[in-house]
Amino acid sequence: MQLSLSLVLLAGIVLAVLLRGGHLKWAPALVAVLFGFFLASTSVAPDIRDGIDGVTTSVSKVNP
What we know:
By secondary structure, this protein is mainly alpha-helical. It has helices at residues 2-20, 26-39, 45-60.
């Protein structure tokens, strides 16, 4: 849960920066947010979550 909240916060910050910087307009941003919202309620959401968990686990095991 902590990782999901962190990823949501990071995505929100990136979205806000892109909007404020003029690199992204409001309409495409709204479409992206709605797409993510509706994608979260589909049957593919657990697979996406498992994939993200696998990537983050692999990255955390890499020693600098």
